Each structure stands twice: as C-alpha cells, then as structure tokens.
Amino acid sequence: MEWLNYHHLRYFWSVAREGSMRVAAEKLGVSQPSISAQIHLLEESLGAELFRKKGRSLILTDTGRVVYNYAEEIFALGRDLLGAVRHGPVSRLAPFHVGLTDTLPKLAAAEILRPVFKLSQPVRAVCHEDDIEDLLPLLATHRLDIILADEPAPSSAKFKTFNHSLGTCGVTLCAPPKVAARLRQEFPKSLDRAPALLPAEHSPLRRILDPWFDEHQVRPEVIAEFDDPALMQVFALDTPGFFPLHAVAVEEAVKRYGFRAIATLEGVRSEFFAITAERKLKHPATVAVTQNAQERLLG
C-alpha cells in the first residue's frame, strides 16, 4: 500500500497558502532549496506537477488545486484532533461545499443559500469562489457538492455536469440616493453619458445589459468595470455613478448600503443555475437550495 508523505504535503500546503516559496520557507524555518526539494518529491509521488510559474509567483495547476483542497481538509481535521485531545471533543457539522462563480452577485448568492442554515440536520457551509473553469474540476472530483452560477457550465467542459435552472430575475439599476433621484427623471434618456459602474465585458450580466443600452440608444460613460460584483457595490458608495443589480438582491442592498433603485429594466432577465456532478439532486442542502430558489426566490 502506498502512503502519502504528510511532511511533504505540509510544505506544499504552506507554499500554496502563501503564494511564495520564500515566504513559506521563512514561516516554516527551513531553506528554500529544502522546501523546493520536498515539493518535488511530492510531485514525483503523485505523478503530476502542482505549481506553474507566472512571473515571480507560483500558481496552482488543476491537479494542484485538487491536492490543495484535500490538504485543507486534512490539516483542518488535524487541528480538530488536537483540540479534541486537549479540550475534549466537540461536534463537527458535516460540510456542504459550495462553489460560487466570481461573476455571481454575492447578495444574490446569500439569498439563494439562506435555506442551508435552516435545515433540520445542520451543515457547515464551506464556500469557494473562483472562475467557473477552475470550479468544475473540484465538482468532478467531489470536492464541491454544488456550483452556483449566473451561466450554465460550458458545453466544452471536460467534465460531465448537469445544469439545473434555478429561475430568472430582473435587473435593477441602483445608485446612491441623490444620483438615483436625478436619474429617475426622464429615464432612460437620463442614462445617456451618465457615469456608470458596470460588470466586466465578459460577464453574463454585461452581455444582457449592452443590448438594452443599444435598444434604448443610451451610452453611459463607463467609469469602472469589475469582475467582482461585490467590489462594484463598494466603489458605488463613493462615486456619482449607477450600477446594475439583480432584483433579488435589491432589498438587501437598500437595507445594508443605503442605495436606491432607479428602475427595473423591462425585458431584461438574468438566469441562475445550480451545477452538479449528478443528474439527480441528493444532498439535502442542495435540494433545499434549488427548491427554495425555484419556488420562492426566482421567477
């Protein structure tokens, strides 16, 4: 029987967490050549490269991401073991691993996931945010139970996946109160040359917004573009611009940040998906999330 060298795994895990062999070596109190040699031995035993160089940084390969996620759980269990021995055992909730695509609005994700915390059999939600292409290998190797996304898994994906539509919701333009009050007047003409904070051009939301702007012959002045919708909202707090928000998250944005709605765009709908590795939904938390979204949250 082959045995994994956990000493090598700890070195790899430390470098992956720090993103730098030098920093990891300093924290571990070993030399860089030593830690490099240990990682090389781990790669040889696994038969795959775990890192690739990008400039001066080390980036995890697809295999490296899988190994890193296993290492996270292994060392988390190790910490639990020490705590149980030293302070007595505590109950450990079963994990529910959720992948969130980086373009999925976080307020919308929070609403979709809310039922997870009301299950009769509690679980521990573990959320991972990344590009959909990087989340799919984790789903295929059962490191994720579900991926929540605002687009289906691409047909070109190397892994067999199933897209479950959670429904659609409208898109609302929002802004700080004074900006919103001004832009409501003569809407949508008021948007022409108005400062705007928009999702990045490759994002699903931007792909449905641009045709709407064209149809209504308005050209907002794009002052910032974002991959991260949450960051877009933070910037919007201190800028004179408007930004789009999925209607399902508007109430929370108004309550939490004091934004105001300008208008909900007629005919513009955004679709959300639950992506799984199996056709039939089995995990109780997955079932609760999809049913809540389909029956109560999204149209």
Automatic annotation (TrEMBL):
Name a Pfam family for this protein. Answer: HTH_1
What keywords is this UniProt entry annotated with? Activator, DNA-binding, Transcription, Transcription regulation
The protein's superkingdom reads: Bacteria
GO MF, one term, reads: DNA binding
Q: State the InterPro entries in the record.
A: LysR_HTH_N, LysR_subst-bd, WH-like_DNA-bd_sf, WH_DNA-bd_sf
Q: Where is the HTH lysR-type domain?
A: 4-61
Q: By its UniProt entry, which SUPFAM superfamilies does this protein fall under?
A: Periplasmic binding protein-like II, Winged helix' DNA-binding domain
Output the Gene3D superfamilies linked to this UniProt entry: 3.40.190.290, Winged helix-like DNA-binding domain superfamily/Winged helix DNA-binding domain
**Which processes are annotated in GO (biological process)?**
regulation of DNA-templated transcription initiation
From which residue to which does the signal peptide run? none
Q: Which PANTHER family does the entry mention?
A: TRANSCRIPTIONAL ACTIVATOR PROTEIN NHAR, TRANSCRIPTIONAL REGULATORY PROTEIN NAC-RELATED
Q: Which family does the similarity line name?
A: Belongs to the LysR transcriptional regulatory family.
- What protein name is recorded for this chain? LysR family transcriptional activator of nhaA
